Each structure stands twice: as structure tokens, then as C-alpha cells.
Amino acid sequence: MAREPCLVCDEETATGSPLYASRTVVARDAARGYVCVDCRAKASPERRGELSRDELARLNESAAVFGTWWSGGTSGVGLG
Ligand SMILES: [Zn+2]
């Protein structure tokens, strides 16, 4: 099984995992990333405080690659 960890919490979201059906796929150029439904919700500015320090760091790292994917409506972000 391919490893497709959540960008924020590092939980596996690949096909066959419990998080697969509700994950969000973010893509930019050749890069693809995956975010579980919980982290997708917590990434919103209103709930950002619920993320751990490490998760917040990974959220910011993902923004460097994919842009602010949690804001929605940007091209290249879609439900997978
Ligand atoms: Zn997650």
C-alpha cells in the first residue's frame, strides 16, 4: 500500500485506510498531498488552536509547498 500520510497529523490516508474516504487531496504542479478530515477542519483559522505544536509546524510546511490549501476555493485543491 502506498504511503499517503496526512500532511498535518501523519495518519495514513491511502486506499484501504479508514481515513481514505473522507480525505482531502491537495495538489500543486507535480506535488500531491493528503489531509484527513479532522485536520482539514482544524486547519481553519477558527480552530487552528486545536492543533498541536508539531501539527501546526507541519501545516505551515505544507503551505510552503501547496499554498494555503485550507482556505478553499483555490485551483488545484479538490476532494479526492
Ligand atoms: Zn490529519
Q: Point out poorly predicted stretches.
A: none
Any idea what the shape is?
Answer: globular
Order of helices and strands: EEHHE
Residue share in β-strands: 15-25%
Q: How many structural domains?
A: 1
Quantity of strands, as a count? 3
Distance between the termini: 17 Å
**Strand line-up of the largest beta sheet:** 2-1-3
Let me know the largest β-sheet: 3 strands, antiparallel
Average residue-wise pLDDT? 89
Structural class: alpha+beta
Tally of DSSP helical segments: 2
Radius of gyration of CA atoms, rounded to a whole number: 12 Å
Oligomer: single chain
Binned, the helix content reads: 25-40%
Distinct ligands, ions and cofactors found in the model:
zinc ion
List keywords for this structure.
80 residues; alpha+beta; 3-stranded antiparallel sheet; 2 helices; 3 strands; globular; binds zinc ion
Topology:
Layout: E1 24-28, E2 31-35, H1 37-42, H2 53-66, E3 77-79
Antiparallel strand pairs: 1-2, 1-3
The chain binds zinc ion.
The site of zinc ion (ZN) has 7 residues, from helix 1.
Textual characterization of the structure:
With 80 residues, this protein is of the alpha+beta class. The chain has one domain. It is 25% helix and 16% strand. The chain has two helices and three strands; from the N terminus they run ββααβ. It has helices at 37-42, 53-66, and strands at residues 24-28, 31-35, 77-79. A three-stranded antiparallel beta sheet has the order 2-1-3. A hairpin with a 2-residue loop joins β1 and β2 (31-35). It is globular and about 30 Å long. Zinc ion is lined by residues 6, 8-9, 11, 36, 38-39.
